[in-house]
């Protein structure tokens, strides 16, 4: 625990007996004397509150579209927090990571105009004002490098070569992370855990009230894949241990130092595969390590099933988990209460617990626990709650600066709309330009290289893949849409914000891999897993894309002059859907060579594409993929639909279905499909519980 946090805790809890802050963030606050001994059978009710994956969505605002978005924002979560605190006077507010990156506000404060040592990130200002009790880390905390992370958290990582400003601005609450350690020291770079000392009101057996101390232990974990995703920032400096191994090491230590309740902040989802220390979503295996509650993140999903009227169904990936291990209704994972509060501040996780003082310690009454992922429409199922008016003024300066940054001209015009509303049924208007930029970069790199190995690759075809990163993962407002202007005669001038709309992950760096035709087929099959297996004989409604939770893994491939073509047969099981794969008019053979322009996430193994694990990487660019797209747009000066937005490389194998097949997308976009000539999109249907429109898809067209 940092010195200033320790002092803050002392000042806030002056009424307690204080022995000081330990090296692991532990404390002896709240020790009972004989005069205030807790009677056997005393009951304590409390609420554990969670936010996760805020991604710098502080305000209810879309910086890419320059418009308000009342479906998101920590300023609205603040209203939920206020309500939950009124319901649960005994409460602990925690965050599960992925806080600092994700919007232009984050990029502005980290890259365009980096916050100084004396400053504090906008999102941290708000979290301080909301009086968070503690927080864990997420994988995106590492996107801007260890120097920046060290500065904004005022933490000395003990990693050689990593600089830290002295007494920099930081969150006024403990930050913990147990499974990332320094290579040279072998010690966690953050405190692995903290004991948060709270004073709560409990009820004695005679019905009277008394104040009692409770030490809430918090411990945090991130996916081991950060070593692949942020290799450029982390290689040789830190390493990552498995989540279960780290929990088994530190949870007993937390108990021995006085933790009455242990809460795991796991920035990972739920995966029922056999445990591995390299699991990206190993949270299931934390429930057996002696913890009392589990807070989940990373997957941007709702867990448990939302309660509000007309709530969306539980995500297909969660529904498929064994019911003996995961109760999606009660919010239990191996019997431990668990919650995931979606993302972008759109929900608040609430775990209500009852503790009884028995045998000299607090014992969780499991049968009285309830779990909820509360959303903005909880009150009546229709209208969103209002934002907390105290939040926006805290970040007004940063907000205005970000708007000025976002609207700087890029120097490029376009005559067409680049959108992702129908990218899952063939539209490439927001994908082709990214693929063209990546191909141009790699071909230029190879042509100018003096490396003899790279020089030998110059005759190998260069192709590219990119995913529709903003295509509904975070709700019906989460779609790329770069407007063309009033008409083709008055083309729209692109701005700094637009490349970020086309390529969301500004931290990704461009890389290239050398693969065989067999690898390419496996890659395409992996991407095609996004689709459901459609039964042509079924008369019931079938969802073409059952879950958008991993939409960033739907890679769309492209070659210059549209030389690469392939089809997807959604009536076949996953793994056998790709047919008619050709390059330059010839069937692709397993032995054919290709160079694929992609990003460091995918090249390093992200998305679990067979054989794509870092071993085939031939180019590791120092340039961010988003910057590559921006530079390409500037170089073009003007982009057109004919040259940059209509090169569809793939299609569905035609099939007639007896019942309706639907695609969920933003409402009111039928005209977009018609303008694109997507005849397979035949009608816009009713809205679902999440606000998506259910578009009818005719797979015979």
Automatic annotation (TrEMBL):
Cellular-component GO terms for this entry: outer membrane-bounded periplasmic space
Segments forming domain Calcineurin-like phosphoesterase: 51-300
Signal peptide: 1-19
Family: Belongs to the 5'-nucleotidase family.
Database matches in Pfam families: 5_nucleotid_C, Metallophos
Organism the protein comes from: Collimonas fungivorans
Residue ranges of every copy of the 5'-Nucleotidase C-terminal domain listed in the record: 507-610
Domain of life, source organism: Bacteria
Example GO BP: nucleotide catabolic process
InterPro entries per UniProt: 5'-Nucleotdase_C, 5'-Nucleotdase_C_sf, 5'-Nucleotdase_CS, 5_nucleotidase/apyrase, Calcineurin-like_PHP, Metallo-depent_PP-like
GO MF entries: hydrolase activity, acting on ester bonds; metal ion binding; nucleotide binding
Coiled-coil annotated residue ranges, if any: none
Name of this chain's protein: Calcineurin-like phosphoesterase family protein
PANTHER family: 2',3'-CYCLIC-NUCLEOTIDE 2'-PHOSPHODIESTERASE_3'-NUCLEOTIDASE (PTHR11575:SF6), 5'-NUCLEOTIDASE-RELATED (PTHR11575)
Keyword Signal assigned: yes
Key words of the record: Hydrolase, Nucleotide-binding, Signal
